[in-house]
Amino acid sequence: xxxxxxKLVKEGKLRKSVLTDSVIFKGDxxxxxxxxxxxxxxxxxxxxxxxxxxxxWTRLKNFCSVCTGATFxxxxxxxxxxxxxxxxxxxxxxxxxxxxPDDIFIPQSKVKEDILLKHNDIxxxxxxxxxxxxxxxxxxxxxxxxxxxxxxFIIRPLGGGESLSKYLLAFxxxxxxxxxxxxxxxxxxxxxxxxxxxxxxxxxxxxxxxVEQERIVSKLEKLFEQLR
Length: 228
Prior knowledge:
- By secondary structure, this protein is an alpha+beta fold.
- It is built from five helices and 17 strands.
- The strands form six sheets. The protein has a four-stranded antiparallel sheet. A three-stranded antiparallel sheet has the order 1-2-3, with no helix packed on it.
- It is globular and about 65 Å long.
């Protein structure tokens, strides 16, 4: 994961500061601390709930890259359905990413390769109505001719595979994560809320061991199957 971060920093896709990973631990006084370099600070008030001893808390930025999608001018839109498809907030349903007949297309030359959707990416609106904050979907296959618009986040796990991606989708869709996202929004106009990237990447995520991730994902998939 660290090697992938170093590669992305070298390519200018991530800031150098992401290489300074934080380590979160529980002290003998039962308080939670975060160590960044030589600095150690008490973050007990930030911890939303207790986790099992073999789990860890970490920041989203420590194992994911987060960026927004393509920005473009109206005159750059293709009149025919060719080029790169741009998905927007309306394409994101809870746990499902869908295409629509009125999707926008822009020339391939206007889209950087690193914002084309990849397997295991998670997408969520960056600017949306209050009730749609935390609406998440996962990319199940590489989509080399599809990206998202500038008002949508791409959350890309740096390693960890399918289990981590599915687990992260479940956690980021939870009431705890949604409450955090609501707390970091700024109102943009009368009906929309803007989620700041710099604050989103500080989200605390509880990470279980791989075997536990797989068990949780399997259980959730069985429950969703029963609801269909």
